[in-house]
Amino acid sequence: MSAGSSAVEAMARKSEGALSAAKDTLADAPAVMKSAAENPKQATNDFLHTPFMRGALPFINGGLAGMTATTVIQPIDMIKVRLQLAGEGVKTGPKPTPITVTREILASGKALDLYTGLSAGLLRQAVYTTARLGFFDTFMNSLTARSKEKGTTVGFKERAGAGLAAGGLAAMVGNPADLALIRMQSDGLKPKEARANYRSVIDALLRISKTEGVAALWSGAYPTVVRAMALNFGQLAFFSEAKNQLKGSSLSPRTQTLTASAIAGFFASFFSLPFDFVKTRLQKQTRAPDGSLPYKGMFDCFRKVAKDEGLLRFYRGFSTYYVRIAPHAMVTLIVADYLGFLTK
């Protein structure tokens, strides 16, 4: 018998085997569907425990948690962005407050103007928070498994490293949606004739790509990544550490989660606000008629703002930022924690 005919016979046997397996699966299908109909809870549980879903759930839960939090917090984020862009390049002059900015927005339009850029915010969370919480959970699961093998425990250093890495990776992926959000929120500050009047986040992304090039979607990516790493370091590392420290306390599990998320929100705000400020300035800027930009990059922006507006300008609106970050962190972490419990 030739080698060619042997190969053909082997392939035929494999095909017969695959066909037989397919027939068996089809024969079992009615029984599987009947079992699922009779016991949907068990069927759902079995599906959630497939290898694919175990890997995907941290990302799915993270995205849903982030989008829920953004829907709640969007008006505060809008006010925070307007505060950061007010008085650009001027050291003295009237200092806007969250109340005056809110009044100005309401006086110039409708209450729904506070939700300008919500579509971009939701897209950003669908990409950024999905990635950062998913990566963080994946990294932490890997670190926990490794520490169990070695008979050690995961420490703050490992949690911080996981938070920094997850934040940096997610920020690069989510930068275009973040840029679109800033452009949509800052558009109302321009004279009417100069406004882009973006209809949605997709419209913003397409028009920015067409007029400024695809690379423009990653404008401010460096401070965005640094900000995300600082925010994740404050939020996820401190949340995980605080929960670990509160485990032996008399507080209920729900109170422990709430307390840990409040602590995480403060540290996330403190570490990330200067980078958030610079990111907002860089993503808002557009080229002048001569092709020049107000800032050449992150360090140039830090230098010019410090010189022209003072060092404290980087922390302008800290209370608003904290009111935006802390509840967002709390809602995100609590929802993610709850979804994690439901899909355990």
Automatic annotation (TrEMBL):
<dbReference type="InterPro" id="IPR023395">
    <property type="entry name" value="MCP_dom_sf"/>
</dbReference>
<keyword id="KW-1133">Transmembrane helix</keyword>
<feature type="repeat" description="Solcar">
    <location>
        <begin position="252"/>
        <end position="342"/>
    </location>
</feature>
<protein>
    <submittedName>
        <fullName>Mitochondrial 2-oxoglutarate/malate carrier protein</fullName>
    </submittedName>
</protein>
<keyword id="KW-0812">Transmembrane</keyword>
<keyword id="KW-0813">Transport</keyword>
<feature type="repeat" description="Solcar">
    <location>
        <begin position="53"/>
        <end position="142"/>
    </location>
</feature>
<keyword id="KW-0677">Repeat</keyword>
<comment type="similarity">
    <text>Belongs to the mitochondrial carrier (TC 2.A.29) family.</text>
</comment>
<feature type="repeat" description="Solcar">
    <location>
        <begin position="154"/>
        <end position="245"/>
    </location>
</feature>
<dbReference type="Pfam" id="PF00153">
    <property type="entry name" value="Mito_carr"/>
</dbReference>
<dbReference type="InterPro" id="IPR050391">
    <property type="entry name" value="Mito_Metabolite_Transporter"/>
</dbReference>
<keyword id="KW-0472">Membrane</keyword>
<dbReference type="InterPro" id="IPR018108">
    <property type="entry name" value="MCP_transmembrane"/>
</dbReference>
<feature type="transmembrane region" description="Helical">
    <location>
        <begin position="321"/>
        <end position="341"/>
    </location>
</feature>
<dbReference type="InterPro" id="IPR002067">
    <property type="entry name" value="MCP"/>
</dbReference>
<keyword id="KW-0496">Mitochondrion</keyword>
<keyword id="KW-0999">Mitochondrion inner membrane</keyword>
